[in-house]
């Protein structure tokens, strides 16, 4: 975390160089090419002028989640962790270093021998570094993720259960390994999936609009959301999460917070429209209005003294007014531009399968669209109050068609604009640059293709990979 000293940050804002950054962001074209992560970097740069203060973090809880694909170790911390993770071999182990971190008194880190972990060891060094060593029964793929939680932060270390790395495969060894480290030291870094948060509107005690035949909006939109979830999950480079999986009530703010905790790249809220005029028909796509964005900014700025609010991992809490305002404004403007572009792309696809209610993307102050840092759109799929639309909404064929066109709209946008650290960007170029720690089978599974296809496509004579080597990625077989 970065604590800005008031005087310094004021001076920094007045530097012409900083205004250049703001100027670039004001240009819509450049704006669309920036990812939320790049915005975080800008935010970081804006804050570099301010003094840095090292804050210690405390692990106050440790939980182990075992699911079909992964064993997840969750470190619950009271502050954002500053961590590094890497693998060592012979014997196989994963090492997690957390800077300036303590373990709460009496807390023990234990996984009770859940595969692939044999044992967890840990110790705090004199300089405050907490080192956690996971002794594993074999080589494993590891992913790390930091997410915000209600009580602070969660560092999730996911050990992949499937895709066991075969012994005949050769691991890439980092050329930058420190001399005192084992030669087999490898770093864990991957291109990332885009995360799509799918929100089925209403639910539980809130049925949403009700059709003439008694169709509940909450039911049809959940079906469309599930269809979309199924489609997105099959796409290489994408992960999708349903904000509500079943017929439950969630507040609008809770929906936003769930998407933000997931670090989603896009939030799609799915609804069905209703109007007194029973003739009203067709689909609409909404983004947040300027008024909605401004009032949200005012609200977040007003609340920042009471609650920790984060933008790209940076707290607004201790920022001087002008700086906090600039940070929020930069982030919001980027988010709105991306939302608008995605909305247009989705709207174009909806126009292919049915009528559009209006001739443009619409803007409104819907609360659910108010994430300052996650591009968000709301889709009114059709009018449940219209007899013909209601009938179509009830048909599973039309539900699937809607899901398909939402997917196409999303894909068309991200294919052109996904940030360089994403799998989609790699698929666009169809080139994967080998990083340390990667294996052929690991890469194949990331792109949802077979190892043999990858080997043949690149005419590889062996599975030995070099750092910096470029592999061509064939079109997915799924
Ligand atoms: Zn609705």
What would you say this structure looks like, in words?
There is one protein chain. With 478 residues, the chain is an alpha/beta fold. It has four domains: 6-48, no CATH class; 57-187, Immunoglobulin-like, CATH 2.60.40; 194-417, Zn-dependent exopeptidases (Aminopeptidase); 430-472, Roll (Membrane-bound Lytic Murein Transglycosylase D, Chain A), CATH 3.10.350. The chain has 13 helices and 20 strands. The strands form five sheets. A six-stranded mixed sheet has the order 12-11-13-18-14-17, with helices on both faces. The chain is globular, with a radius of gyration of 24 Å. The structure holds zinc ion. Residues 201-202, 208, 217, 271 line the site of zinc ion (ZN).
Shape: globular
Quick one: how many beta strands? 20
- Looking at the chains present, what oligomeric state does this protein adopt? single chain
Q: Name the beta content range.
A: 15-25%
Query: How are strands sequenced across the largest beta sheet?
Result: 12-11-13-18-14-17
Tally of contiguous helical segments: 13
CATH fold node name of the largest domain:
Aminopeptidase
Supply the CATH class of the largest domain.
Answer: Alpha Beta
Quote the average pLDDT: 79
Q: Biggest β-sheet, characterized? A: 6 strands, mixed
Q: Which architecture name of the largest domain does CATH use?
A: 3-Layer(aba) Sandwich
Which ions, cofactors or small ligands are bound in this entry? zinc ion
How far apart lie the N and C ends? 42 Å
Question: What number of domains?
Answer: 4
Radius of gyration: 24 Å
Task: Tell me the helix content.
Answer: 25-40%
**Unreliable sequence segments:** 1-33, 49-53, 163-189
CATH superfamily placement of the largest domain? Zn-dependent exopeptidases
């Amino acid at each position: 975390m970065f604590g800005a000293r008031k005087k310094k940050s004021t001076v920094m804002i007045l530097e012409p160089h900083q205004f250049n950054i703001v100027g670039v962001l004001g240009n819509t074209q450049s704006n669309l090419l920036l990812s939320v992560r790049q915005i975080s970097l800008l935010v970081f740069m804006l804050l570099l002028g301010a003094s840095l203060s090292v804050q210690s973090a405390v692990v106050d809880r440790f939980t182990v989640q075992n699911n079909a694909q992964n064993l997840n170790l969750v470190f619950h911390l009271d502050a954002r962790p500053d961590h590094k993770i890497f693998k060592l071999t012979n014997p196989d182990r994963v090492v997690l270093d957390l800077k300036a971190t303590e373990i709460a008194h009496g807390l023990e880190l234990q996984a009770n021998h859940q595969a692939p972990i044999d044992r967890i060891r840990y110790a705090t060094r004199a300089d405050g570094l907490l080192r956690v060593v996971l002794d594993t029964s074999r080589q494993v793929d590891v992913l790390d993720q930091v997410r915000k939680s209600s009580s602070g932060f969660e560092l999730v270390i996911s050990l992949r259960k499937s895709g066991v790395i075969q012994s005949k495969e050769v691991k890439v060894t980092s050329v930058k390994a420190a001399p005192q480290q084992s030669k087999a030291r490898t770093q864990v870094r991957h291109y990332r999936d885009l995360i799509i948060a799918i929100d089925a509107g209403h639910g539980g005690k809130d049925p949403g609009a009700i059709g003439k035949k008694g169709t509940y909006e909450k039911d049809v939109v959940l079906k469309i959301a599930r269809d979309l979830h199924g489609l997105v999950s099959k796409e290489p480079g994408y992960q999708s999460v349903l904000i509500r999986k079943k017929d439950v009530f969630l507040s609008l703010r809770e929906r936003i917070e769930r998407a933000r905790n997931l670090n989603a790249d896009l939030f799609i809220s799915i609804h069905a429209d209703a109007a007194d005029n029973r003739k009203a028909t067709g689909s609409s796509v909404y983004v947040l209005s300027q008024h909605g964005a401004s009032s949200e900014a005012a609200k977040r700025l007003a609340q920042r003294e009471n609650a920790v609010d984060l933008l790209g991992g940076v707290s607004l809490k201790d920022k001087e007014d002008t700086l906090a305002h600039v940070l929020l404004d930069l982030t919001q403007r980027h988010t709105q531009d991306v939302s608008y572009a995605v909305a247009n792309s989705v709207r174009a696809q909806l126009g292919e399968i049915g009528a559009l209610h209006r001739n443009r993307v619409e803007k409104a102050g819907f609360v659910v669209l108010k994430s300052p840092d996650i591009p968000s759109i709301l889709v009114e799929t059709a009018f449940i109050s219209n007899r013909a639309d209601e009938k179509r909404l009830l048909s599973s064929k039309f539900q699937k068609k809607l899901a398909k066109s939402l997917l196409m709209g999303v894909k068309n946008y991200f294919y052109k604009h996904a940030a360089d650290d994403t799998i989609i960007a790699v698929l666009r170029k169809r080139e994967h640059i080998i990083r340390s720690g990667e294996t052929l089978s690991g890469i194949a599974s990331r792109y949802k293709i077979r190892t043999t296809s990858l080997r043949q496509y690149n005419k590889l004579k062996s599975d030995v990979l070099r750092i910096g080597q470029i592999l061509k990625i064939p079109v997915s077989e799924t």
